[in-house]
Amino acid sequence: MLQMLSEYGTYNTELVSDGILNREEKSKELLMGTEMSVTEVAYAAGFSDSSYFIQCFRKYEGITPGEYGKC
């Protein structure tokens, strides 16, 4: 399937980045609007690994999810 998608140009890093950014936007809403822990937010936003979630969040936001939730 990945080969088929790449042949048509639809499977690329932009597609992956868009998915991560969509999950990150969801996580920002949860961090600011709930009392959920960072781990709970990671899973609710669709991440299967909270460490990876923290890494991605820091990459795109410049701060950790815990710091963002305290803002």
From TrEMBL:
Gene3D superfamilies under this entry? Homeodomain-like (1.10.10.60)
Q: Which InterPro entries match?
A: Homeodomain-like_sf, HTH_AraC, Tscrpt_reg_AraC-type_HTH
User: What organism, scientifically named, is this protein from?
Assistant: Dorea longicatena
Q: Does the keyword Zinc apply?
A: no
- According to UniProt, the name of this protein is Helix-turn-helix domain-containing protein
A Gene Ontology molecular function term of the record: DNA-binding transcription factor activity
Q: Does the keyword Transport apply?
A: no
Instruction: Give all residue intervals belonging to the HTH araC/xylS-type domain.
Output: 23-71
Q: Where are the transmembrane segments?
A: none
**Keywords, alphabetical:** DNA-binding, Transcription, Transcription regulation
